[in-house]
Amino acid sequence: MYDAVIFDLDGTLLSTESVSVRGGMSALRSLGRTAEEHLFHLLVGKDDAASRLILVDHLGEEAVNAFMPAWGDECQRIFTEEGIPLRPRVTELLEHLDTTGLPRAIATSSRRDSARTKLKWAGLERQFASVVCFEDVARRKPAPDPYLHAAELLGVDPGRCIAFEDSETGAEAAMLAGMVVVQVPDLLPSEGQFAHHLAEDIWTGARMAGLI
Predict the structure, then answer these.
(1) Which tens digit of pLDDT belongs to each residue from 143-194?
(2) Which of 109, 210, 84, 206 shows the shortest CA–CA distance to 167?
(3) How many Å is the maximal CA-CA distance in the chain?
(4) Which residue from 17, 19, 157, 198 has the least number of CB within 10 angstroms?
């Protein structure tokens, strides 16, 4: 039914979104700023450039210049101390895919060094044939380019791919690429506007879509 499987990274395979919020709120408090969780919810699914624009709008340019490195340091501290947990049933799905031989890739809005580091800390660095990152495309999600490029690297028709996402931004990108989209929300609830299947965990979504 499918020729390849393409995954988003943060919030889909990895439980990094909640750590990002924790780290961001801690960094804001260390700078003497009010920390509101809602602000970080606005950043879910956004790339670095889009996230910075949102932060500047809320905090101001000078504050963001101080905040960004503090945020990165705090998130790295948490990851180093606690590791990076996988989202529910991700291991189960990846083990199943090992038995099918289907090629798989990642399409993420993260920069390459960050994506590679997180994959290594999560023990997934050898699990994917290709990893499409922020630097690899001119247009980022919700444009379809990351997913189209991932399909190109795998040598498959995008219409023969299944994509897994957590955010509305990412689900829209995968749908515009012509893929079957399974959305498994993480921090933010969704009505699945851009998804063919909306599921509570990635294994259930794969079953709904006929992957297993």
Answers:
(1) 999 999 999 999 999 999 999 999 999 999 999 999 999 999 998 889 999 9
(2) 109
(3) 53
(4) 157
Please say whether the dihedral angle defined by the alpha carbons of residues 118, 119, 123 and 125, taken in this order, is positive or negative. negative
Give residue limits of the domains in the chain: 4-15+84-208, 17-82
Q: What is the pLDDT of residues 112-138, one digit of tens each?
A: 999 998 999 899 999 998 999 999 999
Cα–Cα distance list, 4 to 105, 121, 127, 159 (Å): 8, 25, 14, 10
N residues, the chain: 212
Q: What fold is seen in the domain 4-15+84-208? A: Rossmann fold (3.40.50)
Question: What is the reported pTM?
Answer: 0.88
